[in-house]
Design goal:
The structure is a single chain. This protein is mostly beta strands and 206 residues long. It has helices at residues 9-19, 88-95, 198-201, and strands at residues 28-45, 49-55, 58-65, 70-79, 83-84, 107-119, 122-131, 134-149, 157-168, 183-197. It has one domain: Lipid/polyisoprenoid-binding, YceI-like (Lipocalin), CATH 2.40.128.110. The radius of gyration is 18 Å and the shape is globular.
Amino acid sequence: MRYLKGLAAGIVLAATLAAAGTARAEPREYVMDQEHFAIAFMVHHLGLADTVGMFREASGSFTFDAETGELSDVVITVQTDSVFTNHQERDEHLRGPDFLNVREYPTMTFTADGATQTGERAAKLEGDLTLLGRTEPLTLDVTYNGSREYPFGDGHHAIGISARGTIERSDYGMTYAVEDDLVGDEIDLIIEFEAMYADAANGQRD
């Protein structure tokens, strides 16, 4: 959800690559590491406490040019039927027409083409979230957590990204229990993931 993909990496990654001795870098495509991602959400319930949930299936990619600092082609796709809140009946309700309507809308997608630096390792990523057939603007506050050669397995190059954002579900026509404030309208998004070169993800390590 507002979520997903490589995002502010553009900001500090350029400096990281330069420090590593990269004189001229070609734009590279990154993909979300399927073994290291979390897309979660929080919504207030009955005015008492936040219910915390997550989506267990998602994919994402983006292109970053280390020479120009340009970030583009950000796409994060979430499988809506993978919603999980640790309560079977509630999860089935969330998959139904009152909320995610997964039969008619099996995915939600966030897209963006650029980030604005707000700090040494921070940026705002302004894009669009498509949910329930509606597309609305969504801004994510993104933090680039660093990069390194992976210490396990094949030793691929990995970067870490954290992102936060907020949507109002009623903007997408999801109005169940909003008027009587039984379920909050505002949903906080929490996105954490590692990303790797796309060719590395396909088993073609540099």
